[in-house]
Design goal:
Blueprint lengths: L7 H10 L37 H13 L9 H15 L18 E7 L8 E7 L4 E2 L2 E2 L16 E4 L2 E8 L5 E8 L20 E6 L4 E7 L16 E3 L3 E4 L5 E6 L5 E6 L4 E6 L6 E6 L4 E5 L1 H10 L3 H13 L1
Antiparallel strand pairs: 1-2, 2-5, 3-4, 6-7, 7-8, 8-9, 10-11, 11-12, 12-13, 14-15, 15-16
């Protein structure tokens, strides 16, 4: 249904006029990783607070305005419940403490990137959390130390709202671009019950976000589909190489796109849902796909196949080599 597809022109226009906190999560290119990097002091992100009013005060102010009839235009019951839910979540989320952010410009900052959501249990936002050096252990980050007993969540440094059900994420090799699989919600949907997520499109949108600017940089890639109902949580793993991006789908195919030209290069046939794809870490023209048909298939590009065949010695050469060894 066209109602379930995002209006990207309108979305891009809105994002260009709104302010967005900027901080560096990646290099400019894969080649930059090999060069010494000039690091700057990490930027400080501040969560928006509706004109300087704290979240708790904002919730109380909203109730006061509602009781005195200052909320215009009149809100429906579902719109009211949604607004209260948003304010409540912000009230229960701890704001970043500036003195916890590293001041050493040479420190190796790490970030935790994960799916989350404040309106419904189905993941519809991407959370980005700066991990301080003392929070890292051999088993991973240890969080929660900055929360008090009346706070539900750790503070986040940035949130990207997808307005849809997120079903997959993958980073580019240089860690600059984040690729996100999602199934869009209706554009004007109102969520009043977190246990009742909105309907989702069958078309999977593959979004590309630049982690230097925190903005979507390209029109979403499309070609693949998913059919799992909106009330179920599921994941379709994607993978990104230097030049390609690949994803599974529930239409019994895996897909490969060119990262630079945004065109679909291949559909990879299976007999059931393709749950996961992975490029070889040493050869991006070799891809593995895993499916509910209980198979893992290995795919090579035509160029890689030609190179592999050229390296195989011919039978006549083998015979000549054997004869030479016999004579010696």
């Amino acid at each position: 249904s066209p109602d379930l597809l995002l209006d990207y022109e309108e979305q891009l226009a809105a994002s260009s006029t709104s302010t967005c906190p900027v901080f560096d999560l990646g290099s400019d290119s894969e080649e930059e990783e090999a060069k010494p990097r000039q690091t700057t002091e990490p930027a400080v992100q501040e969560l928006p607070d509706d004109g300087g009013v704290m979240a708790e005060d904002g919730l109380q102010q909203f109730f006061d305005d509602l009781m005195e009839g200052r909320v215009k235009p009149a809100m429906t019951e579902t719109e009211l419940e949604t607004k209260v839910a948003e304010l409540f979540v912000r009230n229960r989320t701890k704001l970043p403490e500036l003195n916890l952010l590293p001041t050493d410009s040479n420190s190796k900052t790490k970030y935790l990137i994960f799916t989350t959501g404040c309106l419904t249990y189905s993941p519809h936002q991407i959370g980005i959390k700066r991990i301080l050096p003392h929070q890292m252990t051999t088993a991973g980050p240890v969080l929660g130390e900055e929360r008090s007993s009346d706070e539900f969540f750790d503070s986040l440094d940035h949130v990207i709202d997808i307005h849809g059900h997120i079903i997959g994420m993958g980073l580019s090799p240089d860690h600059r671009y984040l690729y996100v699989n999602s199934r869009a919600w209706p554009r004007d949907c109102v969520i009043s019950d977190p246990m009742q997520p909105p309907p989702i499109a069958e078309e999977i949108d593959l979004h590309v976000f630049d982690l230097k600017t925190m903005k979507e940089v390209k029109r979403a890639l499309r070609a693949h589909r998913a059919y799992t109902p909106n009330e179920e949580c599921f994941f379709i793993f994607l993978d990104v190489s230097k030049d390609f991006v690949a994803s599974g789908a529930e239409d019994r195919h895996g897909y490969i796109w060119d990262r630079h030209y945004n065109i679909c290069l291949a559909k990879l046939q299976h007999d059931n849902v393709v749950n996961s794809v992975a490029f070889s870490p040493v050869e991006q023209e070799l891809l593995l796909t895993a499916s509910d048909d209980t198979t893992i298939k290995v795919w090579r590009s035509p160029r890689a196949v030609r190179i592999q065949q050229a390296r195989k010695p011919r039978p006549r050469q083998r015979l000549l080599s054997w004869l030479m060894n016999q004579k010696s």
